[in-house]
Predict the structure.
Amino acid sequence: QVQLVESGGGLVQAGGSLRVSCVASGSFISISTMGWYRQAPGKQRELVAEITSFSSANYADSVKGRFTISRDNAKNTVYLQMNGLKPEDTAVYYCNAKYGPMRLNYWGQGTQVTVSS
């Protein structure tokens, strides 16, 4: 079992930066990939970035070069540093963890990121 709690969202002007964090409680050692997804109003939830337990990262094309995902296993935490934010980055950002050999999906409650133009 895993519980995920996000923090760090907010309102920022275009071109600004934010860092969102996700703390996992429970059996962190059994978590393989952790990631960030986002969902804008009227749109499907989409992958933003993900990172494996070996710190291999994968990014959506729309955020490459602007966002950086990182993972601190000692703190059971995954971060998403977002630079050069654009209004189209506005969404609820959800932390995701894939747990155990079956890669069961766990989700956080989401944190709102709003980028004003």
Summary: Residues 14 and 86 are 5 Å apart (CA to CA).
